[in-house]
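We give the entry.
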Amino acid sequence: MNQELAEKIQANPKYKELVSKRSSFALKLAIFVLTMFYSYILVIAFDKELLAVKIGETGVMTWAFPVAAGIIIISFITTLIYVRRANGEFEDLTNSLHEDIKDSL
């Protein structure tokens, strides 16, 4: 890619909108997932007994397993949310940007 084309792309308002929306959305999802994950780790580090409580009186499973499984499931769901938005809104903005740049070449 030559420098002139790169400057045209970076000057396009649709490119700026795409970068802004995508970065903001990815940052929010990352903060959400990392907060959830590190909260779990901090509970293990500072109050291990909280998650070591068994579920039910005769059960052998502790609360740590369903909480960890929930974190993994929520992580998959947030990935799905990002992929759906990337394949929809972000892809539309990218295609629109391609059309604008194609006309200016």
